[in-house]
Design brief:
Shape: globular
Distance between the termini: 33 Å
Structural class: alpha/beta
Oligomer: single chain
Order of helices and strands: EHEHEHEHEHEHHHE
Strand order of the largest sheet: 3-2-1-4-5-6-7
Number of helices: 8
Length: about 270
């Protein structure tokens, strides 16, 4: 079975930096048409010319994906540029700390809106488009793939990351439920549960918290923190026909971290 995504069209959110950008770069290098979406227009513009120069085709769309109109416009822009959409990578995510007993703390609401609900609504719109463009297609042919970026924090209990843990747990359940709902339409939905990844938020935490790097490494069997590029091959696998009989799965890419269960250690 082929890992190829050559000629496929992918929408990748959170594509201005970090793992979203790494996936976008890789998909373009593999011959995919990529619509890079993010609120950070400055970084999108800075990256797209370099990404396009590598090979393939990339476009950018700057918007706030929490807004329904922005999502509709993103899909319209993708269709104008590439005529179709085959893959959705929901890589837009935010990490905030939570004060569980602070009644003014709105981190849970903010993270549910940013990390879950915006991805859910976009997945609905993209799935409807995938179904429409598959009309008249051979019933044995795959229609599309949706890949959500989650975290092993969904399975951890740490008060300071309560909002993030709740949001990622919701993302995992959304993945499983949408997989069942979309299976009759031949659209697969899976998630990547990341362990400690060298993201912008983790870099900030490492600077602010003495000993955090050593603590994370100590509780990761492979003994290091992952780089964004280590997620991209898994994203390609789940987007390609190589995973044609895989749906509703939350695949841990965490260096073995989820095999251990130290409550005190953060899962970013």
């Amino acid at each position: 079975m082929s890992f190829s995504i050559d000629g496929k069209t992918a929408i990748i959110t959170g594509a201005a930096n970090g793992v979203g950008l790494a996936i976008a770069r890789h998909f373009v290098s593999e011959g995919a048409n990529v619509m890079m979406a993010d609120r950070d227009e400055k970084h999108l513009k800075a990256e797209v010319s370099e990404v396009e120069a590598e090979s393939g085709t990339a476009r950018i769309f700057s918007c706030d994906l929490r807004e329904k109109l922005s999502q509709a416009n993103l899909i319209s822009a993708t269709l104008d540029a590439f005529d179709r959409v085959d893959i959705l990578i929901n890589a837009s995510r935010q990490v905030l700390t939570t004060e569980p007993m602070d009644t003014e703390d709105e981190s849970v609401q903010a993270l549910l809106e940013q990390n879950v609900l915006s991805s859910f609504r976009l997945s609905q719109l993209v799935a409807k488009r995938m179904i429409k463009q598959a009309e008249g297609q051979d019933e044995d042919e795959p229609v599309g793939s949706i890949v959500n970026l989650s975290s092993i924090a969904a399975q951890r209990s740490r008060p300071g990351l309560m909002g993030f843990s709740i949001a990622t747990a919701a993302m995992d359940q959304m993945t499983r439920t949408m997989a069942i709902a979309l299976a009759p339409e031949r659209i697969r939905v899976n998630a990547i549960a990341m362990g400690s990844l060298m993201s912008a938020s983790l870099k900030a935490s490492l600077k602010e918290t003495e000993g955090l790097r050593e603590d994370i490494i100590e509780h990761t069997p492979l003994g290091r923190i992952a780089g964004p590029t280590e997620i991209v091959s898994v994203a390609q696998f789940l987007s390609s026909e190589a995973s044609s009989f895989i749906t509703g799965q939350v695949m841990a890419v965490d260096g073995g971290r989820s095999l251990l269960d130290p409550v005190k250690t953060a899962a970013h």
